[in-house]
Amino acid sequence: MKIAPNALSATEAGRNMREGRLSSVDLVKSCLTRIAETEPDLQAWAHLDGDAALAQAAEMDRIRKAGYPLGALHGIPVGLKDIIDTKDMPTERGTPIFAGRQPDTDAGIVDRLREAGAVIMGKTVTTELAFAHPAVTRNPHNPAHSPGGSSAGSAAAVAAHNVPLAIGTQTNGSVIRPASFCGVFGFKPTRGMISRRAILQTSVTLDQVGCFGRTLDDVALLADAISGFDPSDPASFARPRPEMARGAQADVPVEPDFLWLDLPYFDRLNDDAREGLAAVTDTLGAKIERMTAAAPLADLIRVQGIIHEFEICQHLKSTFDDHWDQISSTLQPIITRGRAISQAQYEDAQNVSTSAEAFFANLFVDFDAIIAPSAAGEAPLFGSGTGDPIFCTIWTLAGLPAVTLPMLVGNTGLPVGVQLIGATERDDRLLRTANWLQHHVSAADA
After folding, report:
1. Is residue 251 in a domain?
2. How would residue 1 be classed by pLDDT, with cut points 50, 70 and 90?
3. How many CA atoms lie within 13 A of 234 on its CB side?
4. Which residue of 141, 182, 249, 261 is most buried, as measured by CB atoms within 10 A?
5. Active-site residue numbers?
6. 111-140 confidence digits (pLDDT tens)
7. Within a 13 Å sphere around the CA of 389, how many CA atoms are in the beta-carbon half?
8. Smallest Cα–Cα separation from 406: which of 118, 181, 219, 204?
9. Do residue 43 and residue 192 come from a single domain?
């Protein structure tokens, strides 16, 4: 049975294009047809210009036929979370406050996408200011459920085969959690790997860019394409990056060692997620060590909250001051709480965060990856929130690379992810370990 172009992974579509079996125009047309089918119920797109996407695709086909060099994402459609600035599309940040906002320049990652030959398909729906208030997007597996947040549209668009790749951001759990709920691969590289220039800043300390795809190879391919040093981003580092696509395809030299950290908030796990994770960890036998986390680790949840809420109130002060009546009732109490955080409390939280980074640097001397829940379980019902981000909080605070693998299914048939967390700037090693785990669990289930 022939697979429709929009259902191909990015890696497969790229191979077919390079070998002359598929054009970018045909791929984009297939994606646009699929979007027309799903969008009335899904509502994943904040902005979509089919003619502009087809024009980009036609140019990519011209370049390929002319024999010019091809980028890593040549002709591949990509969706962008609607907090990422684009000079030829509006960026409205999930709020009527910025309705019609048209940036003058592209974000740093958009420059890199264009250099890699990607087709910028459109802007995917985000929650209000990439924070807590739910978006209109529905879960593609069951529209009665949420896709998660804040990268709601990006996760849903990939899961619904609207596009093979999409980009989101994570300040707490906004890549890993929606990827888990929507049954796709989500990858948040090490903090500082990817430029945040011209992306809505909610926390200069915590904001990080992440990738959605339908395979591990796909998210690694996208992460490689958009990674790079940017001196305008204070988190960006001027060092070589790990080759993530190579890591995702590599065989492990020896079987990896895993760590399961028992944390106090794991009582929030749903029974089906707990049972599924137990089945995965049981296959690892002596390759996994279980450890009860010390109390200071659990306290990092509070630390992340202080930093996030203090910084969003600083970065978006004028927006909150000038448009308070347009801020949702979900976000208003968080802002009020953030405004009450003192400078001393904030500085103490930053000091604790720095200590946590040192702790994890030592921890990964003995382990290839931490294995953990991606979320509490299946996606919550639509209208009941975007799901609990707590299972991502500590790793995001520490800037660690994390990936969620769509390996489990909950009691009602919705997907549940398994999260792996790796050492800073060892993203290739993390993806290599994730590749091994996929094959290991599949072999154990056979």
Report:
1. no
2. low
3. 6
4. 182
5. 81, 150, 174
6. 999 999 999 999 999 999 999 999 999 999
7. 26
8. 181
9. yes
| Domain hosting residue 440, numbered range | 258-445
pLDDT in tens, 184-193: 999 999 999 9
- Report yes or no: 357 and 424 within 8 Å, Cβ to Cβ: yes
Domain of 350, CATH number, reads 3.90.1300.10
Considering the domain boundaries, does residue 407 fall inside one? yes
Domain end call among 214, 243, 272: 243
Say yes or no to pLDDT of 37 above 80. yes
| Distance (Å, whole) CA 158 – CA 163 | 5
Residue with tokens 């796990």: 269
Through-space distance between the first and last CA atoms of the chain, rounded to whole angstroms? 24
- Domain presence at residue 366: yes
Average of per-residue pLDDT values in the chain:
97
Asked if 397 and 294 sit in the same domain, the reply is: yes
* Overall average pLDDT of the 295-317 stretch: 96
Name the pairing type of β-strands 258-262 and 185-188.
unpaired
Question: pLDDT-based confidence at 445, cuts 50/70/90?
Answer: confident
| Residue 252 belongs to some domain of the structure | no
Domain total of the chain: 2
